[in-house]
Write a structure and sequence with these properties.
homodimer; 191 residues; alpha/beta; six-stranded mixed sheet; two-stranded antiparallel sheet; 5 helices; 32% strand
């Protein structure tokens, strides 16, 4: 999506360790026009796939999923990262490795919200090593729902997540795929 | 908002300890029609107040703020709950007591996203004791921005948060105010 590439070039900041900061428009402050266009684009890509649930993981994916849900007309669900008093009952759970924070954490979704009748589209802000997506795919598999694919705002094409998912036959659509960020210079993989 | 009251009566579940579970439509699975109507209603209530930023705290408020931002046409920001590698630089920080999880946590917003020129509307899914809202108000005060008010999906009117905020002169608009939940029977405070 040209708008996403333009916004990354305009407002993204490259930091040491292949970190791309997009907190002014995507995952801390969130631009309403960009979010709307992301929602429309995910719907253009996956709108014909009979999606019944959008699934993401807290926190940065929640806004993307909720705005996209306005176009899909189906519920959005976010997997929770911590056991809370408000998430009792039966849950699907999966482990996710965290490279940002170190260690791993558990994600959980109530069994009431994913069933074998569902067709699930996964959404998230970033795809890097793919650990969050693999965790969400695990939840979907446990539920017996069908996985439609993954919609990603920004894929780090130089890390292995996208390849890992596509090798498993998962349809991955990323609105911008970063090929490299050498010396702060961002290049995109062309479609 | 009648739709919110109806949805609480239809799908809300009252648990021990004055806990109201609304995870099937508000804060785990999120209903797109309800979210749209919430966004419209917050805009009807606060659209004339010159709001330049919507501010919430992760995680459940993020979707509400992002969908509302579609109507306000201004950015949404979520305060982060943990220090991460991706939130460096100068931040406003405040302490929030957690009654759900016990203890307290720190919320942070980058100083780049709140300035004295901003007019800020706070949004969240629940208002109970008011600790999250007081923390967000602290961040706004530190930034020198103007506080427009608080938009809340569900206020527990039998807890002190709403009174505390209104006594400080804050405009609080709650889409449903629960008066009581005795023996699982939910009653609303009428406007």
């Amino acid at each position: 999506m040209l708008l996403m590439q333009q916004r990354i070039l305009q407002d993204g900041v490259v930091r040491e360790g292949n970190i791309l900061k997009v907190d002014s428009f995507l995952n801390h402050q969130m631009d309403p026009v960009l979010y709307r266009e992301m929602g429309k684009e995910f719907y253009r890509l996956f709108g014909g796939c009979g999606v019944t649930k959008l699934l993401t993981v807290e926190a940065s994916g929640i806004g993307i999923a909720c705005v996209a849900a306005q176009y899909f007309g189906c519920p959005a669900i976010f997997a929770k990262k911590s056991r809370t008093k408000n998430l009792d009952g039966e849950v699907y759970a999966a482990q996710v490795e965290s490279y940002t924070h170190g260690g791993s954490y558990t994600i959980r979704v109530s069994k009431r919200f994913l069933t074998p009748a569902d067709r699930v589209l996964l959404l998230d802000d970033f795809l890097a090593r793919g650990s969050a997506m693999l965790g969400l795919m695990d939840l979907v598999a446990q539920s017996g729902a069908a996985l439609v694919g993954c919609g990603i705002a920004i894929e780090k094409g130089f890390q292995e997540g996208g390849r890992l998912l596509r090798e498993r036959g998962v349809r991955v659509e990323s609105l911008a795929v970063i090929q490299g960020m050498d010396q702060g210079h961002i290049t995109f993989r062309e479609e």
